[in-house]
Amino acid sequence: MDQQHKVIPLLLLLFQVLLVASQTDSQDYSGLNSLTESWSNKPQNWVGPDPCGSGWDGIRCSNSKITQLRLPGLNLAGQLSSAIQSLSELDTLDLSYNTGLTGTIPQEIGNLKKLKSLSLVGCGFSGPIPDSIGSLKQLTFLALNSNRFSGTIPRSLGNLSNIDWLDLAENQLEGTIPVSDDQGRPGLDLLLKAQHFHMGSNKLTGTIPEELFNSSMHLKHLLFDHNQLEGGIPVSLSTVSTLEVVRFDKNALTGGVPANLSKLGNLSEIYLSHNNLNGFLPDFTGMNSLTYVDLSDNDLNASNIPSWVTTLPGLTTVILGQNLLGGTLNLSGYSNSLQLINLEDNEITELDPQNNLPNFELRLANNPLCRESGASEKSYCKVPVPNPSFYSTPPNNCSPSSCGSDQVSSPNCNCAFPYSGLLISRALSFSNFSNVSYYRELEQSLMDTFRNQSIPVDSVSLSNPFRNTTSDNFELTLDVFPSQTDRFNTTGVLTIAFLLSNQIYKPPEFFSPYFFKGASYEYYGGEPKGSKSSSHVGVIVGAVVAVVVFVVLAFFAGRYALRQKTRARRSSELNPFANWEQNTNSGTAPQLKGARWFSFDDLRKYSTNFSETNTIGSGGYGKVYQGTLPSGELVAIKRAAKESMQGAVEFKTEIELLSRVHHKNLVGLVGFCFEKGEQMLVYEHIPNGTLMDSLSGKSGIWMDWIRRLKVALGAARGLAYLHELADPPIIHRDIKSSNILLDHHLNAKVADFGLSKLLVDSERGHVTTQVKGTMGYLDPEYYMTQQLTEKSDVYSYGVLMLELATARRPIEQGKYIVREVLRVMDTSKDLYNLHSILDPTIMKATRPKGLEKFVMLAMRCVKEYAAERPTMAEVVKEIESIIELVGLNPNSESATTSETYEEANAGNAQHPYREEDFSYSGIFPSTRVEPQ
């Protein structure tokens, strides 16, 4: 008791010292602590009780009150609680690009009456948008896009009389567009100061109200694309004279295009495609600001193509395909600014003049004039093959550096860890994505902004441009490189992310409006130490806090140890793996290297109760969920279905195998769960999906020839590691395109070791085992003999190579890819006569160098007898030589559910790819769907 009486006064004294030394209002500190106590991955310098005095990253203060919470791109995880209302002086709240922040937005956010900017772009928030946001009368910037918000657009947003930027796009909002009514209820028509309505990619229904628009509005960007809106285009739209970009594409609009839209003298881009509009093609004569017009896929008609299509002085792109336009297209006196006119699938009968082709791209395929004799040879009558652009910022008069793992060579040839993300344009005023000048202008504008904001940026790089077929937006990968160091500190990342999330960066007109999706950054270094004025206070506070923490921890240490001991004993009783000894050879315990044991409750929490919204894969084995660990790390949680579970011994063996392999081209195992009748494996999260999805176009990632070579090399290196560097060697047994994943830089990672086998007896060279694998990739010799060898993986890999070259599934409509290649292949002809079977997308601009050698190597891999196939090490060397032939360094960084079959009747084995039967069902009586 005497000791307790001495400690209590000491604690009181220490807390008094803390209060005197602190520069932060105690209520604000308490509120911030309550708000963030459950958050993971907070900034490293959040130490002590004085955010304002200690210069905490992302915190800005005025008169001891926290006024700004700017934490974009920190990989934070947790929820936004009602404690946010405690920060009563907050004027800026930015939590963008933290996908681990989930749950609903609390109604209490409406108590932040001084809030001017609220940005939650690209998080994981869901549920309805709180009505209380409508009470934030000083709000000028509201960006809630790229979340999972549902419900309707709150009417109360009509009370935000000072709002300039309103972005609710890329959510799951439904219902009608709210406008004010005679009952005094507010609506979006009252937002007279707003310049941006971004509502695309939701599920909005009903008509576009005439009352939504009026002449007092200052709208510039009006985006309601990719919804389910019906009815006509309001005539009142023409009263908003400030409009520059209008998007109503991908809806179900009907009726005609209002003639009075020609009054919109500032309109630059208009998108009305993929609707059910009819009537006459509108007359846009005199709209000299127009640069981009897309009215395709409607039922618009015209007896002749109006002159404005070719003569408007600023027009670059006119897309009018799939309508009912007829008559003559007059090309005399066309504008020099034109880059593309697309009039495919109409009723045009004549081109005037016929023999004087324009210097812009003209598309007239599937018109009557192209069905005339000899017209099919005209360039404008041919259906163009999609030609996605490829661009990557070139080096600035230097040789790219050979960088270490995860580092990237900057345009100034310095190895560093860049801050990355997607820069996305929601409107396209240019059609030629291959024009390098656009990218250079964009790069320069970014660098100018960073310099003007005094951000230590060495250079920026743009790459991987493509048109997202889901959203119709134009996307670019942006890498920002640090100056005079190899990585950004927290302050650097926060500053760059905030500049992009809050639209402080203003791009060139052709790229506006835009938004940014930041990736997580894991390479923080060189954390700032704060100013001299705060360092002394920081030392005092830190010392006092250390004493307090020590006393408190000492008090709880005994209780904690006792609790842990009890928990460990219970865990041992419930979980047969709890007594595994790591890194030993004794008993039956596996040799685990880095794999963690997760409880069922942990994984349920990390995956938001295994919610459907977190599902990223499924099959007969069960489902795969995206999860977020307390550290902020994204993981993939593979949860076995009850009918697909292995025995405890087999599951233990698989975990042991996975924990032993560590290679940059293999998907890493983070941990496992074997509890409450569940079997779950936790893998590192790979963001760009499967190779199969990319080859099929499902993922939206364009795979050119160079990328395919690098993916082939990465997968080969991963397999070579399993065969030759793992001890004992490992045979994967299920190599296929759905088991090759692509990371952020499109590097290949071999995944799913559920069918893998250890080659314990390397002298014998094979494992006699039940036949398992995926039809189309399965080694015929293994199938016939049940003797599994490393060359069985080589065969599957050879099929994968042919899939890379053709973008065809191994078995399509009863045709087996290996036999189809053999059928048409002729080595005496150009490209071995493979033109009819190769994927057209790799045949675009230039001849794919090394393709013949690539195909020949693939055919060696799929030799019927294993002895005739190369080893994976030999395959790696040959692909490296092909990449060198292309002129690249093979060591530089690159930027449909299959069924798995088990042979139930080994005595009746037949060749799995016999000529007369390629159907799945007749070959393997029992099937088991494996994950992709």
Regarding quaternary structure, how should these chains be classified? single chain
Under the CATH scheme, which class of the domain at 688-929?
Mainly Alpha
Number of helices: 15
Helices and strands: which structural class? alpha/beta
Shape: globular
Helical amount among residues, as a percent range? 10-25%
Instruction: Look at the structure and give the mean pLDDT.
Output: 83
What does the largest sheet look like? 14 strands, mixed
Stretches where pLDDT is under 50 for at least 5 consecutive residues are 1-21, 526-541, 568-591, 894-907, 915-932
| CATH architecture name of the domain at 688-929 | Orthogonal Bundle
CATH superfamily of the domain at 688-929: Transferase(Phosphotransferase) domain 1
Transmembrane segments: 537-562
Subcellular location: Membrane
Membrane topology: Single-pass type I membrane protein
EC number: 2.7.11.1
Q: What distinguishing features does this structure have?
A:
Alpha-Beta Plaits; Phosphorylase Kinase, domain 1; 932 residues; alpha/beta; 15 helices; six-stranded parallel beta sheet
Please summarize what this structure is.
The protein is an alpha/beta fold and 932 residues long.
